[in-house]
Amino acid sequence: MSIWKKEFSLESINAMSKDTAAESLGITITNVGNDYIEGEMPVDKRTHQVRGLLHGGSSVLFAETLGSIGGALAVDDNHTIVGLEINANHIAGVSDGNVVGIARPIHIGKTTQVWEIRINHKQTNKAVCISRITLAVIDLKK
């Protein structure tokens, strides 16, 4: 059974990223299941730190993008979400290829949501980052 409360397509989700940080870093949503969002981000000069490795901030932006999209799709049209807190554990460095992230809800409540995002190196399937985001659910009718 699906957790989504809005109609969407991959094209409509990716179109929301036009002219945003997600577009600048090359983040795309590649798959949506009944209870997860999956996306991909390149590991290149846009996402590197000075030593040529994936920047931790790029990983966090990727994680927040995935969790926030999931959160936004899991509320009805009378609600929206905003980020309250995000944390990330950087497990391993990568210097090229792509990373794949999967966001899954831990809690979807009336006032908050908690999502876990796991980011792996696409080419090796090695864990790169584990993140958790807490979102506030905002009632737009108030």
UniProtKB/TrEMBL annotation:
Organism: Arcobacter venerupis
Keyword line: Hydrolase
Protein name as annotated: Thioesterase
PANTHER family per the UniProt record, alphabetical: 1,4-DIHYDROXY-2-NAPHTHOYL-COA THIOESTERASE 1
Top-rank taxon, per record: Bacteria
Lineage, top ranks: Bacteria, Pseudomonadati, Campylobacterota, Epsilonproteobacteria, Campylobacterales
Positions of the Thioesterase domain: 52-125
Any one Gene Ontology cellular component term annotated for this protein: cytosol
Statement: the UniProt record of this protein carries the keyword ATP-binding: no
GO molecular function, one term: 1,4-dihydroxy-2-naphthoyl-CoA thioesterase activity
SUPFAM superfamilies for the chain: Thioesterase/thiol ester dehydrase-isomerase
InterPro entries: HotDog_dom_sf, PAAI_dom, Thioestr_dom
Family according to the record: Belongs to the thioesterase PaaI family.
